Amino acid sequence: MSTVAKLLAQKQQLMEQLENNPGPNEREEIERILAKIETALSLLDPRDPVAEGE
Which string of b and e fits 7-42 if b means at least 16 CB within 10 Å? Predict the structure, then answer.
């Protein structure tokens, strides 16, 4: 599995966790990790930016 695929899989898992209405501390941690994933994805392929909300 490529790095991009792993990041996208992790992103999907975190998005599903957000849908389960986590507590404020857990939500903050999930959002922090999602921001890191978005940054990593944009750095891996700057010609193909990840669309907002995907």
Answer: bbeebeeeeebeeeeeeeeeeeebeeebeebbebbe
